[in-house]
Design goal:
The structure holds two protein chains of two kinds. Chain A is α+β, with helices and mostly antiparallel strands. Chain A folds into two domains: 7-148, 60s Ribosomal Protein L30, Chain: A (2-Layer Sandwich), CATH 3.30.1330; 164-321, PurM-like C-terminal domain (Phosphoribosyl-aminoimidazole Synthetase, Chain A, domain 2, Alpha-Beta Complex), CATH 3.90.650.10. Chain A is built from nine helices and 13 strands. In chain A, strands 8-10-7-11-9-12-13 form a seven-stranded mixed β-sheet. The longest helix of chain A is centred in the N-terminal third of the chain and has 18 residues, at 101-118. Chain A is globular and about 65 Å long. The relative contact order of chain A is 0.17. Chain B has a domain at 64-169 and 255-296: 3-Layer(aba) Sandwich (Rossmann fold). In chain B, the strands form three sheets. Chain B has a five-stranded parallel β-sheet. In chain B, a hairpin with a 3-residue loop joins β10 (267-274) and β11. Classes of the chains: A alpha+beta, B alpha/beta. At the A-B interface, α8 and β13 of A face α1 and α3 of B.
């Protein structure tokens, strides 16, 4: 019989203890976690960034990743978008009774891989098991801390007229990869999630010395929502060019079939940066040297007209407003 | 799926636009019937690219929008019956009816499920033998054949707990009703692509013959629509209205015989109740007597009550192309996709939703 997670695995008793000791501790192996104290105790110097996020993606495995990889990358990226160097993460699991042990192990393995790639340590954690039906397979919460280097001041409200908008690659891959796996929508699709830790790319961007005004990863709500946030927080207009925004063929085809607009579909391994016009080319060049920024490009600019509004020039030469996302285009995407 | 960008090619688009500007001298009021066209026109900014001689008007071609409040009330009354599972396409559940919406009934404990096709509804029927599964059949000639197929499949497989509330509508009669009303003056019609893939081009022939108005069947990509406008302009300038197919990769003059036969086998033409237009003879579809055991209206006792139209909402006028969303006092103020007052703001194919989403009428 297949080994399953039981309620007792989250009880705090023997089974919980064994699960953590045999499976989690050796995997993440570090001096903070190995102690299994109530908190991880560590020293950090400088300005700290602190973030938390919960992951409820359905299904938990999807092309290009799984909920574990997502939980690490999502939190690492939230820190990186502030220019922070991510250091320590927590991982808290809410498991539905009956989850296959092999699935849990696979997910923990990918948490380890993502943590290794991004250079962060999993220093504390928690495991809860709830009755069948009270959760859907597995939910993960992860919090993270990182250090913001001195002189870095990134905020959605820093965009200035004349600045250029840089996008690190194609859009919509994560959302479409997940939705194409969902029950009832299993049309064939070659699309893989772009889920990736972007902290090394960000570090290389900061190393160029270019002052980054705004930076954000366009997750839920997609590119459109991120640009609207910048326009609104900075009280500027944003103009983008449809022809410069990279959308993979499979993503575009799936969007056509499902009636989605790729501008609103979630990404998990992309960033948008706003920098002065003079520095934009230099930054794009540096980004293209990193595997997660290979397809970086300038997609638009910040203008004084229509403050708070994003306008896109279409391929046909017309322009249209790109509004905030209203309603939920795709539920439980991350 | 290929051939998306090919139909969005900027260079080809520019040369078509230039030709339209060059050719168009007479005022041309063109109506796109189909909601899919309305969305594409807004999304690609096509209105701005056309010369001032051309006005694009949106017609009654969004299936969710044209469903009358009285018919929505029937769906809601059915959803409130014990032992019933309502299956429907997504947009329908949000549309406010006279006193409630399917979404509201669902929140109050009704079993309302969104499906992507009638086959999903049949599957639900199969796996819930003790429940009655009712599919809310909306849509034009495009969707009616798939609903017909589901009824035949239910019969073949002996599924006895599957029912259809047929609110289907057919297009050519409502075009006739609009033209007969004389309310809106048209010089050309952008005919629907998907509907015409089923019915072909022949059912439109009365329009140039009896009303002197040209018809061109269009696809949904920007180049399709520009080509269609170009062909309509050519007809208007030469004074020779006729039915033409611009969407040749999807539409044959005779349509899709298999689909038409399926539809004819299961449905018969009846009067249709259109929001904003009213009851139009021979513009609806109901199940034939032979298939009455699958007809929800025939098998369930409901009292939906008198329909009430949403106050201040001009969806009806918009569907008749007498007004545009920009003429509505509620538009962008109290009515938006989060809090829709009327159906044209709910449906992804609705004029109000398209105008809202793509910022028609806003400075840019």
């Amino acid at each position: 019989m297949e080994d399953k997670i039981l309620l007792a695995h989250g009880s705090g008793g023997k089974l919980s203890h064994d699960l953590v000791k045999q499976n989690f501790v050796p995997l993440f192996d570090n001096t903070f976690l190995n102690k299994l104290d109530d908190s991880a105790v560590f020293e950090l110097k400088g300005r700290l960034a602190f973030t938390t996020d919960s992951y409820v993606v359905n299904p938990i495995f999807f092309p290009g990743g799984d909920i574990g990889k997502l939980a690490v990358c999502g939190t690492v990226n939230d820190l990186a978008m502030m220019g922070a160097v991510p250091k320590y993460l927590s991982i808290a699991l809410v498991i539905e009774e009956g989850l296959a042990m092999s699935d849990l192990k696979r997910i923990m393995e990918s948490i380890k891989e993502a943590a290794q790639e991004s250079g962060v340590m999993i220093v504390t954690g928690d495991t809860k098991v709830v009755n069948k039906g009270s959760a859907d397979k597995l939910f993960i919460n992860s919090a993270g801390v990182g250090i913001v280097p001195s002189g870095v001041d990134i905020s959605g409200s820093n965009a200035k007229v004349g600045d250029k908008i840089i996008l690190s690659g194609s859009i919509g891959d994560h959302g479409i990869a997940v939705i194409s796996q969902r029950e009832g929508l299993q049309f064939s699709s070659s699309v893989k999630s772009d889920c990736a830790p972007l902290n090394k790319l960000v570090a290389e961007m900061l190393d160029t010395g270019v002052e980054i005004h705004c930076m954000r990863d366009p997750t839920r709500g997609g590119l459109a929502s991120t640009l609207n946030e910048f326009a609104s927080s900075s009280n500027v207009g944003i103009r983008i060019e449809e022809k410069d925004i990279l959308i993979r063929e499979g993503v575009q085809a799936a969007c056509e079939l499902l009636g989605f607009d790729p501008l609103y579909v979630a990404n998990e391994g992309k960033l948008v940066a706003v920098v002065s016009a003079g520095a934009a080319q230099k930054l794009v060049k540096a980004m293209r040297r990193n595997k997660y920024g290979k397809e970086a490009a300038i997609i638009g600019e910040v203008v004084a007209e229509h403050p708070g509004r994003v306008v896109m020039k279409t391929r046909m030469g017309a322009s249209r407003i790109v509004d905030m996302l209203v309603g939920e285009q795709l539920p439980r995407i991350c | 799926m290929k051939f998306i960008n090919e139909y969005r090619d900027a260079e080809l688009g520019k040369s078509l636009i230039a030709r339209i500007h060059q050719r168009s001298t007479k005022p041309a009021r063109l109506m796109e019937f189909c909601g899919g066209h309305t969305v594409s026109i807004a999304k690609h900014g096509i209105r701005q690219l056309l010369p001032p001689t051309i006005t694009m008007l949106s017609g009654p071609g969004c299936p969710v929008c044209v469903t009358a409040s009285a018919d929505l009330d029937k769906a809601i009354a059915l959803a409130k019956l014990p032992g019933v599972i309502i299956t429907t396409f997504g947009d329908m559940i949000k549309v406010p009816a006279s006193r409630s919406s399917l979404q509201q009934v669902k929140a109050e404990g009704g079993d309302v499920r969104i499906v992507y096709s009638t086959l999903d509804a049949l599957e639900i029927a199969r796996s819930n033998p003790s429940k009655c599964i009712i599919f809310i059949g909306i849509g034009f000639e495009t969707t009616a054949p798939t609903v017909a197929a589901s009824v035949l499949q239910a019969e073949q497989q002996g599924i006895s707990n599957y029912y259809v509330l047929s609110l289907h509508k057919i297009c050519p009669p409502v075009v006739k009703a609009l033209l007969d009303s004389g309310e809106v003056k048209l010089d050309g019609i952008v005919c629907p692509g998907h509907v015409s893939a089923i019915i072909g081009s022949r059912p439109y022939e009365f329009i140039p013959r009896d009303y002197g108005i040209g018809c061109v069947i269009s696809g949904f990509e920007p180049l399709d629509i520009l080509q269609c406008v170009d062909m309509l302009v050519a007809q208007i300038e030469s004074g020779e209205p006729k039915v033409e197919i611009a969407y040749r990769r999807g539409v044959k003059p005779e349509g899709n015989r298999t689909a038409l036969e399926l539809m004819d086998k299961v449905f018969e033409v009846c009067e249709g109740n259109w929001r904003g237009i009213g009851v139009v003879p021979a513009s609806g579809l109901r199940l034939r007597k032979k298939y009455q055991r699958y007809d929800a209206e025939h098998n369930f006792e409901i009292k939906p009550g008198e329909p009430i139209e949403p106050k201040g909402c001009i969806c009806g006028d918009i569907l008749r192309a007498v007004k545009t969303p920009l003429d509505c006092k509620l538009f962008r103020k109290v009515c938006n996709p989060e809090h829709p007052v009327g159906p044209c703001m709910v449906s992804s194919e609705g004029s109000c939703a398209a105008y809202y989403q793509y910022g028609e009428g806003l400075g840019r």
